[in-house]
């Protein structure tokens, strides 16, 4: 009889821990859902593919890295991350501008992180990363390569200057 009581006590103990684990999983899923919706989090993805050997070729969107005004306070930036700089190295937009970034690399993996924002793209050769951001505050934002890309990695910094209207 004592053995049967012990087995039931162990089952109750196991059920308690199982219930605790299930509650924690539900809580974590709720937190993830809240973060995804509440903080405007999104996962950047490849907008398209490009042959890395033809990034700078004539006719490529990235042959002349640039920023274009494409709408009312909407800008499109074509950025090339390469050893060991960003092209263009400096981007100027007015305060309140929504900028659509298309980023690619002709050589190795790089990062495209705009400090002070939630913009962070892993730049992979052969892929064009697309991400958007609205710059609501004037100032200077550093663009940093946050993926190790070689010996000059620490010097790979660009700028986005957001000017008062």
UniProtKB/TrEMBL annotation:
GO terms for molecular function: copper ion binding; cytochrome-c oxidase activity. The keyword Methyltransferase does not apply. Pfam families: COX2, COX2-transmemb. Its EC number is 7.1.1.9. Residues 62-165 form the Cytochrome oxidase subunit II copper A binding domain. GO terms for cellular component: cell envelope; membrane. Its main location: other. The chain crosses the membrane at residues 17-43. It comes from the Bacteria. It is found in: Cell envelope; Membrane. The keyword Phosphoprotein does not apply. Keywords: Copper, Electron transport, Membrane, Metal-binding, Translocase, Transmembrane, Transmembrane helix, Transport. InterPro entries: Ba3_CcO_II_C, CcO_II-like_C, Copper_CuA, Cupredoxin, Cyt_c_oxidase_su2_TM_sf, Cyt_c_oxidase_su2a_TM_dom, NosZ/Cyto_c_oxidase_sub2. This is cytochrome-c oxidase.
């Amino acid at each position: 009889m004592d053995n049967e009581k012990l087995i039931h006590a162990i089952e109750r103990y196991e059920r308690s821990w199982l219930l605790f684990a299930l509650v924690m999983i539900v809580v974590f899923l709720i937190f993830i859902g809240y973060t995804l919706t509440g903080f405007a989090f999104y996962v950047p993805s490849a907008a398209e593919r490009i042959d890395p050997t033809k990034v700078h070729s004539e006719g490529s969107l990235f042959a002349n890295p640039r920023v274009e005004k494409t709408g009312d306070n909407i800008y499109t930036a074509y950025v090339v991350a390469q050893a060991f700089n960003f092209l263009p190295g400096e981007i100027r937009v007015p305060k309140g501008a929504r900028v659509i970034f298309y980023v690619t690399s002709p050589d190795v993996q790089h990062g495209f992180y705009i400090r002070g924002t939630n913009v962070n793209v892993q730049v992979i050769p052969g892929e064009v990363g697309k991400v958007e951001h609205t710059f609501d505050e004037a100032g200077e934002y550093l663009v940093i390569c946050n993926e190790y890309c070689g010996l000059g990695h620490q010097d790979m910094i660009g700028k986005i200057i957001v000017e008062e209207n």
